[in-house]
Write the structure tokens for this entry.
Amino acid sequence: MRIKCEMDVVNRILPSMNVKKGGKGCHTQLSIGRKPQSGSKEGVLFLMACTAKDMNGTKFQIRDNIEQIFAKFINEGKATIRLKDPPQDLCLCKADPLQLKNFLTLIRKASLGQNIDKINLSTLAPASNKNVDKPKTKMTVTSRKDYPLTKSFPSQLEYLQVSQCRMKKIDSRIFQLKKLLHLDLSENVIEELPSSSFSQLKILQELKLCANKLQSLPSSLCLLPNWKQCLSLLDLSNNSISLLPVQLCELDNLVTLKVDQNKLETFPPTIGKLRKLKYLSASQNQIDVLPCSFMQLRLEHLDLFNNPFADVTKSDLEETEWQVPSLVECCARMIRKNRLPYTEEDLHGHLCRYLDSARVCWCGGFCFQSCVRAMTSFSLKTLSPTVSAVDLRGRTDVPILLFLCSPQCQKKYITNPYAYWR
Ligand SMILES: [Zn+2]
């Protein structure tokens, strides 16, 4: 029987002699096996620890030599084996909890001299490099022939890139990689993103999906708690996305968003909620107007090059009669204002879509049909010091579409159309 873990050996005598204990744990392969000895037919049971520095391993007798086993944190893969001779504590961590449980049960039985004949023991042979080396945390696959089909992905991966492999669906084995921080699946032919599987990547920080065949970003993905808490980079460039979900604006920790070369016509109306967003690029889309809340962003880099923005020279206010909002609209305004959560589980689908379609007034309030549209021109230079022009003529003024939720807001707008961002 064999397990891999990190082990720190602590000598119990040294602290009393005022010598500090050993340093960090190192990658260790622990095995239990028999060593032939004179006077014993079967051989005596030994625990062997092999590390990269000590490939031949150190052996410790097990029978009547285990003073205590500390296993309070066994579910976290941690335990300590206290030996009598030498007076050392073997502090184990980062082990697989289930394997560790079986391993410690076996040691306990063996130390008491119980019968363990039925269990497969290991040979006490020196370890190979593969078993004591630091686990692989980074992997890059850039061709189909290198893709691990029969072998599994190293379980400790933190960075994984799989590109140019013509992957159509994301391999479910990737979602088993619990330590993944960066996932790069650029240049494949992925069409769909499975929300429930992504919820398993609890600490994912960066997701690159550029140059795939995506037509949408599912709103349920943006509502995953792990995405809200951890995701800081999302690259969806070079796909066929025509609409970003409003739920995207719930990704509180998003710092970088790349949506270049898609079919976007605008941004979600609440895009200004992305307070941490610093890098935004959306070049080569079909954007002709920006929502009012775009002006609340504070960016370090903004690229909106090559979008068909309309020309707006002066403020343009729609002339309409004010209508009293319907009861549905009044309720919807309150739901959005108070940020009440809603899903298709508790509301009819068309009501959810209605709620998603809320327009944001410059006062911060929400409105639906009962509102007045206004178009105005806005300089992108106020958003970011290093903004690039939106066309080859060097233009940085773009049209902003805003909605006014009440006669009061309309009156304020007429008095001073620039009051909001001045
Ligand atoms: Zn308003």
User: Anything to note?
Assistant: The longest strand covers residues 26-37. The CA atoms of residues 217 and 244 lie 6 Å apart. The domain at 138-262 is CATH 3.80.10.10 (Leucine-rich repeat, LRR (right-handed beta-alpha superhelix)).
